[in-house]
């Protein structure tokens, strides 16, 4: 998981390649290797 380098409308194209959503609390600080919650798009379609 990594933050897209261009924060703007171009992110929509990158989102179309995604497999799901990372669930991260607002203001959270994450380090390399930290566990996060992940919501796969397949779970949203079930």
TrEMBL record:
<protein>
    <recommendedName>
        <fullName>MoeA C-terminal domain-containing protein</fullName>
    </recommendedName>
</protein>
<dbReference type="Pfam" id="PF03454">
    <property type="entry name" value="MoeA_C"/>
</dbReference>
<feature type="domain" description="MoeA C-terminal">
    <location>
        <begin position="3"/>
        <end position="41"/>
    </location>
</feature>
<dbReference type="InterPro" id="IPR036688">
    <property type="entry name" value="MoeA_C_domain_IV_sf"/>
</dbReference>
<dbReference type="GO" id="GO:0032324">
    <property type="term" value="P:molybdopterin cofactor biosynthetic process"/>
</dbReference>
<dbReference type="InterPro" id="IPR005111">
    <property type="entry name" value="MoeA_C_domain_IV"/>
</dbReference>
């Amino acid at each position: 998981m990594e933050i897209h380098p261009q924060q703007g409308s171009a992110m929509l194209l990158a989102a179309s390649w995604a497999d799901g959503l990372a669930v991260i609390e607002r203001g959270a600080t994450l380090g390399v290797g930290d566990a996060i919650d992940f919501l796969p798009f397949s779970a949203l379609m079930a």
